[in-house]
Specification:
Length: 359
């Protein structure tokens, strides 16, 4: 890849100053997130030997790029050397906003789980659920961690060779070796070695943060895009095959190959990001499409936070992926949940002091 000229980066921006392909990526990623969560409930409940389970596994395998894309966009924005970030801004604005969002939404979902239909009604259960958070709120905690580490990551990003070295280290230590620990005998020995080594520097999502910066400021050749696209198809196949193998061996769903840091997921995420950037370098949205995409992208944070409630509400009325074939059912439920979540997010963003915090 070669470094991207500033001129082309400016050309990819909308008149509002937003990077258009980031908005397109946000729309794609939030749709994929909701689709994954629409499919995952039934996926966990049905036999792993069934044809429906297979189809749902393919859907989940193809869409794991969703959350990494959000991390990569954040990295491209937060590690931009032209936009200094002080500790004062981090600890007085960004991190408190994420903490407030986590506290409010975690408490809201805890109340629904504990005091809603079928809940225990126990105050202790509510307190525990409010602290640990709903299943999807881990994303906020991960963002808090990345914000805390941003000053360090910015220094790494100043030297592209060091930044690529960091990403290269993340490939084996975060993306490959953890999967191998499941192999009988060898995996146990490897797990012992890694546990003793405690090389945690490149674990987690910091690699995606840096990748977002590196890919945003580079231009992949057409040949590289083709090669990475082939690798992405292989990655999806590995995600499906690996998940099927370990799940059927255990007799229950096993999500280790679904992990967002695995290499099979990372290659797909890189292709989606680079393809969107290549499109953004060559095209501009029309004013009408720009407003529509910008609206959805701006509301994507709120959609992420609120969509599990609407998936739950739809199930209460018998609307789940089981209403049709897996693909059709997942698409219908996703569109309904996205529409309701988009409305809710847009309304929340109209409330003073809520915009950018709770939605």
């Amino acid at each position: 890849m070669r470094t991207e000229p500033d001129r082309r980066e400016r050309a990819s921006r909308a008149p509002s100053g937003r990077v258009e392909y980031f908005d397109v990526l946000r729309c794609i990623a939030i749709l994929a997130v909701v689709m994954i969560h629409a499919a995952i409930t039934e996926w966990h409940e049905i036999p792993v030997e069934s044809a429906r389970w297979d189809e749902l596994t393919w859907i989940n395998s193809a869409l794991r790029f969703s959350v990494p894309i959000f991390f990569m966009i954040s990295g491209a924005l937060f590690l931009d050397p032209a936009k200094p970030v002080s500790l004062r801004v981090l600890y007085r604005r960004r991190i408190p906003r994420l903490l407030v969002a986590y506290a409010v939404w975690s408490s809201a979902y805890a109340a629904l789980d504990v005091y809603g239909p079928g809940g225990s009604g126990d105050l202790g259960d509510f307190a525990a659920a409010a602290v640990t958070g709903h299943f999807h709120l881990w994303f906020l905690l991960a963002l808090i961690g990345l914000n805390i580490g941003t000053p360090i990551l910015r220094r790494i990003a100043e030297d592209r060779r060091i930044a690529w070295y960091f990403v290269a280290l993340a490939v084996p230590f975060a993306g490959v070796l953890p999967l191998l620990t499941g192999i009988p005998v060898f995996g146990e020995l490897l797990g012992d070695v890694l546990g003793s080594m405690r090389f945690d520097l490149v674990l987690g999502y910091a690699g995606y943060f840096l990748l977002g910066h590196l890919l945003h400021t580079a231009t992949p050749s057409r040949g590289a895009l083709v090669g990475w696209s082939v690798a992405a198809l292989v990655g999806i196949g590995v995600t499906y095959a690996g998940t099927s193998a370990v799940s059927r061996d255990a007799g229950a769903t096993d999500e280790r190959f679904f992990d967002f840091t695995t290499l099979n997921v990372a290659v797909v995420s890189v292709v989606v990001f680079c393809a969107a950037k290549a499109w953004g370098d060559a095209h501009r949205l029309s004013p009408r499409w720009g407003r529509a995409i910008g609206f959805v992208a701006g509301a994507s944070f709120g959609v992420y936070l609120v969509h599990p409630f609407f998936l739950w509400a739809l199930r209460q009325y018998g609307i789940s992926t089981e209403i049709a074939s897996p693909t059709v059912g997942v698409v219908l439920v996703t569109l309904l949940a996205c529409a309701l979540s988009l409305i809710a997010s847009a309304l929340l963003r109209l409330v003073p002091r809520v915009r950018g915090v709770l939605a």
